[in-house]
């Protein structure tokens, strides 16, 4: 019997069974974030020193994180509507515009770009957490692996590569910028152009990500009106806030924001600059980034469940506690090699603590809130951005010692709430098994 020439050999409507390469997607996602944030991270470190007129740089960062806070409330809705891949791609535009605004810094360019970057950052980070956790779950299912272990490993890879942006970006700073007489700095135009190119490459790389589980079809339910979608998202956000587990993890999320902003606002200004000068900020932040990256990779590999997360978080908290007590006991600079090494040692220890919090918080939320990943990661970025903006706005009016006291109080509260959470979760798991 002759075969009808118009009959296709394969039915186009038949779904393809070829499994996605989840590890490939993780490396693409991590590389794209590295290219984007090696630029943005370096620019953020420079804002308070290159845009000094009227405190334009510091104020812009404060506005940015306030905008980030506001838009985090609706970020989960946007990510659900766009899909995590599309949200990731759209989110890169905010970083590109903010960098471009620094080529012509003024209140008319920096404030609008900061406001828009707050929106873009909220969706790119919710998209990142959702996408990475989905990839880890799918990889575990496809290969019959423990899901919690894979979530930890994938987060370790991502945060390890991401943390290296501090090293790469600050090395570029050191290579391009030159201090001139009178306190001015040359080479900023070339630096921002290089950073725009890096961000463009990162955006292009995002386009090669696979879509996840059919959830990344844009505008999934086009019949849903925008107003009803907003109401639904608001209810989901509030319902998650009523979950005791998220309430107990919020203090640790807030502390993670505090300790990141502490590096940007206090460490560089009060600890590094008096000893190494402005030209030493890049080198100190590079040391911070190296230890952050190494710790992220190691902590991710060690993560296998709630027990391991608990032990790793406690280890990181202990390291930052030691640093904070050191600073509280009148950290002082003396002459000689030791004075040069102390700021670098503090940066290295702080990087270890940051690597712990980044990997373990993402793994913890991925394990506890699989039913609402977008909402959980929106909560993560909401409370982080709130605490970061608070530090930026108060750092100019309080001393280093007062800031350290605030950090110590926040650390104790967050660790106590986290330990209570782990006890409750483990108890509930034991009862369900029995």
What are the main properties of this structure?
79% helix, globular, 14 helices, mainly alpha, 434 residues, single chain
Helices and strands in order, then pairings?
Layout: H1 22-50, H2 56-82, H3 84-101, H4 107-143, H5 147-163, H6 165-176, E1 178-179, E2 185-186, H7 188-206, H8 226-241, H9 244-276, H10 281-302, H11 306-328, H12 337-368, H13 373-394, H14 400-433
Helix pairs in contact: 1-2, 1-3, 1-4, 1-5, 1-6, 1-7, 2-3, 2-4, 2-8, 2-13, 3-4, 3-7, 4-5, 4-13, 5-10, 5-12, 6-10, 9-12, 9-13, 9-14, 10-12, 11-12, 11-14, 12-13
Descriptive notes:
The chain is an all-alpha fold and about 425 residues long. Helices cover about 80% and strands about 0% of the residues. It contains 14 helices and two strands. It has a two-stranded antiparallel ribbon. Helix 2 (about 55-80) packs antiparallel against helix 3 and helix 9 (about 245-275) runs parallel beside helix 13 (about 375-395).
Helices and strands, in N-to-C order?
HHHHHHEEHHHHHHHH
State the share of residues found in helices, binned by percent. over 70%
Spans of at least 5 consecutive residues with low confidence: 1-12, 214-223
Structural class: mainly alpha
Write down the overall mean pLDDT. 82
Helical stretch count? 14
- Largest sheet entry: 2 strands, antiparallel
């Amino acid at each position: 019997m002759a075969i009808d020439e118009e009959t296709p050999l394969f039915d186009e409507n038949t779904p393809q069974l070829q499994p996605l390469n989840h590890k490939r997607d993780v490396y693409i996602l991590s590389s794209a974030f590295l290219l984007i944030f090696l630029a943005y991270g370096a620019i953020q470190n420079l804002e308070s020193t290159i845009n000094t007129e009227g405190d334009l740089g510091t104020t812009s960062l404060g506005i940015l994180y306030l905008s980030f806070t506001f838009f985090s409330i609706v970020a989960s809705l946007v990510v659900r509507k766009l899909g995590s891949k599309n949200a990731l791609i759209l989110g890169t535009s905010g970083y590109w515009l903010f960098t471009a605004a620094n080529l012509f810094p003024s209140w008319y360019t920096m404030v609008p770009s900061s406001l828009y970057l707050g929106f873009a950052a909220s969706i790119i980070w919710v998209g990142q957490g959702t996408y990475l956790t989905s990839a880890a779950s799918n990889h575990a299912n496809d290969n019959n692996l423990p899901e919690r272990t894979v979530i930890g490993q994938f987060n370790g890879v991502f945060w390890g590569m991401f943390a290296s942006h501090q090293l790469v970006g600050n090395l570029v700073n050191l290579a391009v910028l030159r201090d001139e007489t009178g306190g001015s700095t040359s080479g900023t135009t070339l630096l921002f152009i290089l950073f725009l190119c890096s961000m463009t490459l990162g955006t292009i790389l995002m386009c090669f990500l696979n879509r996840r589980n059919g959830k990344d079809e844009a505008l999934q339910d086009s019949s849903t009106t925008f107003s009803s979608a907003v109401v639904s998202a608001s209810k989901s956000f509030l319902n998650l806030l009523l979950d005791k587990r998220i309430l107990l993890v919020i203090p640790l999320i807030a502390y993670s924001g505090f300790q990141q902003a502490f590096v940007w606002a206090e460490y560089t200004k009060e600890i590094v600059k008096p000893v190494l000068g402005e030209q030493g900020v890049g080198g100190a932040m590079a040391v911070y980034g190296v230890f952050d990256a190494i710790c992220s990779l190691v902590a991710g590999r060690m993560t296998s469940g709630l027990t391991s997360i608990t032990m790793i978080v406690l280890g990181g908290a202990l390291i930052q506690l030691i640093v904070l007590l050191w600073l509280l006991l009148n950290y002082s600079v003396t002459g000689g090699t030791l004075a040069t090494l102390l700021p670098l040692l503090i940066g290295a220890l702080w990087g270890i603590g940051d690597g712990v919090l980044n990997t373990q918080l993402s793994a913890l939320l991925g394990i506890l809130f699989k039913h609402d990943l977008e909402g959980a990661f929106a909560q993560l970025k909401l409370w982080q951005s709130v605490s970061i903006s608070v530090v930026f706005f108060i750092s100019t009016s309080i001393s280093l010692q007062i800031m350290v006291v605030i950090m110590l109080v926040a650390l104790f509260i967050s660790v106590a709430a986290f330990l209570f959470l782990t006890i409750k979760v483990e108890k509930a798991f034991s009862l369900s098994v029995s």
